[in-house]
Specification:
Blueprint: H1 2-49, E1 50-55, E2 62-63, E3 69-81, H2 88-106, H3 110-122, E4 128-134, H4 136-142, H5 151-155, E5 157-166, H6 174-177, E6 179-181, E7 184-186, H7 187-191, H8 193-197, E8 201-207, E9 213-215, E10 229-232, H9 236-253, E11 257-264, E12 270-278, E13 284-285, H10 290-293, H11 303-312, E14 321-323, E15 328-331, E16 334-337, E17 346-348, H12 349-354, H13 358-369, H14 373-382, H15 414-419, H16 428-439, E18 444-445, E19 450-455, E20 458-462, E21 467-469, H17 475-491, E22 505-513, E23 521-530, E24 537-544, H18 554-557, H19 559-572, H20 581-599, H21 614-623, E25 627-631, E26 636-639, E27 652-657
Parallel strand pairs: 2-10, 25-27
Antiparallel strand pairs: 1-8, 2-3, 3-4, 3-5, 6-7, 8-9, 10-19, 11-12, 11-24, 12-13, 14-17, 15-16, 18-21, 19-20, 22-23, 23-24, 26-27
Helix pairs in contact: 2-3, 9-19, 11-13
Length: 658
Amino acid sequence: MAVEKKQILNKLYLLTGFLFLFAMAIIYKLIEIEHFEGDLYRVEAEQGTVKTFEIAANRGSVYTSDGSLLATSVSRFDVRMDAVTISDNDFEAGIKDLSVALSDMLGKSAGYYENKIRKARINKNRYLFITRNLSYNDYQRLKKFPIFELGTYRGGLIIEQRTVREHPIGKIAERAVGYDDYRGRVGIEGSFYEFLRGKKGKRLKQKIAKGQWKPLNDNNEIEPIDGKDIITTLDLKIQDVAHHALLGQLEKFEADHGSVVVMETKTGEIKAISNLGRTSKGTYFEQRNYAIYESHEPGSTFKLMGMVVALEDKVIDTSEVIDTEKGVIRFHGKPVRDSHHGGYGEISAARVFEVSSNVGIVKIINSHYGENPQKFIQGLERMNVGQKIGLPIKGEGEPKIPNPKDKETWNGLSLPWMAYGYGVSFTPLQTLTFYNAIANNGEMVKPRFVKEIRDQSNVVTKFEKEIIHPQVCSQETIDKVKEMMLNVVKRGTADNIYDPSFSMAGKTGTCQTEYWTDDTKYISSFVGYFPADEPKYSCIVVIHKPNKKKGYYGNVVAAPVFERIARKIYTDTPIEKEVSFANELVSVDQAYDGYYAKANENFTKMPDVRNMPGMDAVSLLENMGLKVRISGIGKVKSQSIKAGSELKKGEIIRLELS
């Protein structure tokens, strides 16, 4: 028994010692938590129920150069309700009137809202959804509703503000304006995000039931600071004209996609940029920024670069006669063909350019650079052809010029193919930049999308003209190629857009694409400038994969878009010209006498006003009691009511001018 008692006592001593050590460990841990880890655990506990949320700042707005909004941030308000925090007296006194007010604003019946809120109160819902996306004005109205007017604590009103990005003029220039959100950073918005974003604010929220968070008070702990505004170079009127001119032609020719850019010649300011792609339903929208990112074979618009190199090296002159033979020559068994069946025979080098003879330009380049193709490449490089522009907007496509030093890619076809725009690759904006340099008498300027950054009315940053190359070639060469581009429109491949009332100059391009397949498609383009004598704007139009049955040549598909843009800008911009009154007096007097005779005639039938100046025809017909609708400018081309028809006062007559 004594032995057993001793064993029991030993076990008790061991157990007591263990319990003592365990108790000491607990005491030590409590002291450690209190004095060393207390702050950490208190923060963690507090963050479990109270948390700081970031409040996005209003992004700065994006404007056109004439002050029209392209993109802006708009506040939107989501409304919820703490149905528990309201006292019984306040709740019963205001629930019916609140339900009526919500019904008037949101549309559903007053009974619907009363039942919804009463049910939430029974279920102790402290985060009841009421509505979302309220405008600021509606939010201010809602704050004054019964119960809600008591505020966050007494009235249970929970407001969560956020900002959304809106484009007031719709889809026009959408890809150029771009975005900075979950999709990435694109366009002006993406490139200048640091200015536009502003600084975020902070607001405390408390965790409530079902993992939801409720603001602790009506005010923010740190107010957000709005972003700065971007003033672009875009002109809304020119942008609108360019957009609709491109859209109309894409629809007409059922093309896959296309782009147009209008640049101010001297400054490089982009006045319009439109990029439209076709959907599966046959409609078009701003899909991708083709003008900036899409590098493709340019076709005949590259002939200007080749001609300038040859003229600068003085291996050719515009008057030199080139035999285009019968419109076909071969290199290593591969044909180079002219679009004109049978060729053009013997024509000058200038005429080769004007009619866009593939055979002619290939013979010029190959005969003078075939033995030393590196010299031709160096000539292009001197003019900055084949170099990236270095745009602030991300995504510029890579230009491509083959090089004889690259033995793996260079072969006997490389130089001849390059001469008429195959095997090389540029984006539309890169091509336009070179043409603009010619229009600008040799000075190559960087295309510019942004004029300045403003903080309200204060200019923070101003962007000036940047010069890429001070003189791409001699003035002598410039004068020669300018004359050739003028004649392209007057008597060459683009004579279909010639208008003696205002001058345009440029070059057509028609390039095969997907020619490695059984279904060859085309890229149609036109690039040039206007007015031809004193260029103010340059412009490029590129349309991909038009319906071949409807047309695919550059003069038919792309040039009319250029002409519509030029005509609209030209007619909307007063241009002073010297007028020789002595030579004009006779024709003016004759026109006046003809109008005066008609104006004093007592018409009983509809007169024939064709070939009359539009101004005179409108005056004559309106004085006869007709309502006149006109389209176009110039003289009357056609009239909707035939001459000799019975006159009916108040009838509408449509005149088409040309």
